[in-house]
């Protein structure tokens, strides 16, 4: 006999409930997966757009260029550098902030003709990208430095030529002071020939000391900025890539010299220096060995400027 | 009809309904995904086009192409004819550097469609850097100066002509 007021729970109800719950679970699972994929797609698109944005920053004969990069939300940029292959490559990964959490996008954009320098895993919504040509002694590439606008840099006791360069770039987060005490507390301090800063630059042996590691820039301002605004591992790897490109360009200029000769240009001993640069650039293992090429670079510059048919 | 048979029919009805609903959602999902994939492909092509367009404006100033101060003063949008000839013969080293399908330089005046090589340089009019990809993808172009060294009675002189720099990108 049926009990009055009792709830009848038939098998079909139970079956429908279990299957319904399963369908609901599947729907939620796929929606979560799909929205995650959409976020990754958007991040990868943004990373690609950054690499596209770098094209106009490629310098011609101008000394430097700059742009402001504004992301839709807070973003975390990371990079990896590989020095194998002809020109090596650099990858860029972007993770955007969503509900106080960074996406776990693992897709990377790869480029071979660009050289981005920045600290490990920089975060922010707005970034400055400024660029400088790397001449060795001919132009090898444009170097791009990425700095979060929120990160302040204080340059102490800056030599006049570098001060002028920094003033020309005119970034709002750069301070140029004479005494370390004049720097704002939250600033990253960069001292020239002076102790007590987080980054110390010695203009005597052209070294940059950062987090107790040294990198060398061989009196090249573009490389000096690269050393300041990036970590040492990235700097050394990018330097390898740049030297590989310099080596291939030295080969191009050697051949150009012979083509010019056929057209009737005067002879020069520049090819000896070019072939030295071509060979030694490939054998340099770290920035400390860069000084081996300093004299050759100077000599090449002198020889080229004295030629009737200049090579670059 | 017995209770057992009635219950079986009910379960069958529910099962068919569930299969129909699942099929409907799968088909709707596939339709949605194909639309999404198409829009993704088109935005990849757009990005590629934008990248090529911006690259094109600066390619002539990249160290492998630029004249620098080699022909008098520093020049922008000037492509070095000699460097192009050297690159053409060494393209295996440069195949991935710019991430484009093909790069061509075409003399605009005097028009000459003869492909350049070291035997007819500089009296030729067309340099194709990636002949294996020639004609594939979509080409974008800009005008540049094409400067090289020519010779008159054994004396070298600088010769600049108008040319079209063409870059093609892959249609996804």
Total domain count of chain B: 1
Cα gyration radius of chain B (Å): 29 Å
Task: Give the overall shape of chain A, derived from the CA principal axes.
Answer: elongated
Please, how many helices of chain B? 3
Mean pLDDT of chain B: 88
Unreliable spans of chain A: none
- Secondary-structure element order of chain B, N to C: HEHHEEEE
Characterise the protein shown here.
The complex is a heterodimer of chains A (312) and B (172). Helices cover 39% and strands 27% of the residues of chain A. With 312 residues, chain A is α/β, with parallel strands linked by helices. Chain A folds into 3 domains: 36-149, no CATH class; 153-230; 243-306, no CATH class. The radius of gyration of chain A is 27 Å and the shape is elongated. The mean pLDDT of chain A is 89. Chain B has 172 residues and is an alpha+beta fold. Chain B has 3 helices and 5 strands. In chain B, strand 4 and strand 5 form a beta hairpin. Chain B is rod-shaped and about 115 Å long. Chains A and B meet through helix 1, strand 7 and helix 4 of A and helix 1, helix 2 and strand 4 of B.
Topology overview:
The complex is a heterodimer of chains A (312) and B (172).
Chain A: H1 11-53, E1 65-82, E2 89-98, E3 101-102, E4 109-111, E5 115-117, E6 122-135, E7 139-148, E8 153-156, H2 160-169, E9 174-177, E10 188-192, E11 199-202, E12 207-210, E13 213-216, H3 221-229, H4 232-263, H5 270-283, H6 294-306
Parallel strand pairs in A: 5-7, 8-9, 8-10, 10-11
Antiparallel strand pairs in A: 1-2, 1-6, 2-3, 2-4, 6-7, 11-12, 12-13
Helix pairs in contact in A: 4-5, 5-6
Chain B: H1 3-59, E1 78-80, H2 81-89, H3 91-94, E2 102-109, E3 126-128, E4 138-152, E5 155-169
Parallel strand pairs in B: 1-4
Antiparallel strand pairs in B: 2-3, 2-5, 4-5
């Amino acid at each position: 006999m049926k009990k009055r007021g009792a709830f009848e729970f038939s098998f079909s109800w139970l079956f429908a409930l279990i299957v319904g719950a399963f369908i609901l679970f599947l729907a939620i699972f796929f929606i979560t997966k799909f929205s995650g994929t959409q976020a990754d797609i958007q991040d990868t698109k943004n990373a690609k757009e950054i690499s596209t944005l770098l094209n106009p920053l490629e310098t011609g004969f101008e000394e430097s260029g700059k742009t402001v990069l504004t992301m839709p939300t807070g973003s975390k940029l990371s990079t990896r550098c590989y020095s194998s292959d002809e020109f090596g490559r650099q990858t860029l990964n972007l993770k955007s902030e969503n509900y106080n959490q960074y996406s776990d996008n693992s897709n990377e954009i790869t480029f071979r003709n660009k050289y981005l320098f920045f600290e490990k895993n920089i975060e922010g919504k707005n970034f400055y990208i400024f660029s400088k040509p790397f001449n060795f002694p001919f132009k090898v590439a444009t170097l791009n430095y990425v700095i979060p606008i929120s990160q302040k840099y204080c340059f102490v006791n800056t030599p006049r030529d570098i001060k002028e360069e920094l003033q020309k770039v005119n970034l709002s987060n750069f301070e140029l002071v004479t005494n370390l005490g004049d720097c704002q507390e939250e600033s990253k301090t960069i001292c020239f020939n002076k102790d007590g800063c987080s980054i110390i630059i010695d203009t005597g042996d052209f070294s940059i000391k950062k987090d107790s590691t040294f990198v060398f820039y061989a009196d090249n301002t573009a490389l000096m900025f690269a050393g300041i605004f990036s970590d040492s591992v990235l700097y050394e790897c990018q330097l390898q890539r740049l030297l590989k490109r310099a080596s291939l360009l030295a080969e191009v200029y050697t051949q150009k010299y012979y083509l010019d000769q056929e057209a009737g240009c005067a002879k020069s001993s520049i090819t000896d220096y070019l072939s030295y640069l071509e060979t030694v650039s490939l054998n340099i293992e770290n920035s400390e060995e860069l000084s081996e090429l300093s004299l050759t670079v100077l000599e090449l510059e002198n020889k080229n400027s004295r030629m009737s048919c200049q090579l670059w | 009809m017995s209770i057992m048979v009635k219950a079986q029919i009910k379960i069958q009805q529910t099962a068919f309904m569930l299969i129909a609903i699942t099929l409907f959602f799968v088909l709707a999902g596939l339709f949605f995904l194909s639309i999404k994939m198409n829009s993704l492909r088109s935005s990849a092509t757009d990005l590629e086009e934008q990248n090529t367009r911006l690259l094109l404006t600066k390619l002539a100033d990249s160290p492998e192409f630029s004249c620098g101060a080699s022909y008098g003063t520093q020049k922008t949008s000037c492509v070095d004819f000699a460097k192009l000839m050297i690159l053409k013969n060494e393209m295996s080293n440069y195949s991935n550097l710019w991430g484009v399908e093909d790069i061509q330089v075409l003399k605009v005046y005097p028009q000459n469609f003869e492909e350049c090589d070291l035997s007819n340089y500089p009296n030729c009019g067309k340099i194709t850097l990636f002949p294996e990809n020639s004609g594939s993808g979509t080409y974008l172009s800009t005008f540049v100066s094409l400067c090289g060294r020519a010779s008159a009675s054994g004396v070298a002189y600088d010769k600049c002509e108008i040319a079209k720099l063409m870059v093609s990108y892959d249609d996804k």
